[in-house]
Amino acid sequence: MESVNSTLPTSPKKHPFRKILILTTLIILVGFFIYYFICGMTYSEGTRSGILTKVSRKGFVFKTFEGELNIGGINQGDGTIMPNTVFKFSVYDSKTYHKLDSLQGKKLVVSYKQVIKNFFWQGESDYFVHDVRGMN
Questions:
Q1: CA-CA distance, 25 to 38, in Å (whole number)?
Q2: Per-residue pLDDT tens for 36-72?
Q3: How many other CB atoms sit within 10 Å of the CB of residue 104?
Q4: Of 17, 66, 99, 133, whose Cβ has the fewest other Cβ atoms within 10 Å?
């Protein structure tokens, strides 16, 4: 008498490693897209005015445009002045960078967007200047 089990086809062996690899890859991809979405979100927008003290192109591999705006001290009313405050920012495009470079040392107003977190290739600061205008 033949055994019933010997006539049934054997099922292929399950590969748990393949399932773990696919699940891990999906988790990494979802995590990356969430991080990318968060990095692209604007936290705040506004303007700052002051004297442009520095604008430069920096970086070893990823060249970014960076700048500093001296927004001045604050008079306390009793004759004391708080120290100068410096607004550090990054610039997305070369057109805005060249405009800033031509206004170096002058009083100007910059429009910026602050992101929650920036990618390392975008710049050193979370503040990104996108428009510049000189003041009289």
A1: 20
A2: 777 777 788 888 888 888 888 887 888 888 998 888 7
A3: 13
A4: 17
CATH number belonging to domain 43-134: 2.40.50.140
Q: Strand (E) positions, 30-126?
A: 42-58, 64-72, 85-91, 107-115
Beta-bridge partners for 55: 67
- Contact indicator for 6, 73 with CB cutoff of 8 Å: no
Q: How many Å from the N-terminal Cα to the C-terminal Cα in the chain?
A: 105
Which tokens belong to 62? 């990823």
Q: Is the pTM of this model over 0.70?
A: no
Beta bridge partners of 12: none
Tens of pLDDT, residues 73-91? 666 666 666 677 888 999 9
Return d(Cα 101, Cα 98) in angstroms, integer: 5
What contacts 113, CB < 8 A, 6 or more positions away? Answer: 42, 44, 45, 127, 128, 130
CA gap 118, 126 in Å, rounded: 6
Whether residue 63 contacts residue 118, with contact meaning beta carbons closer than 8 Å, is answered with no
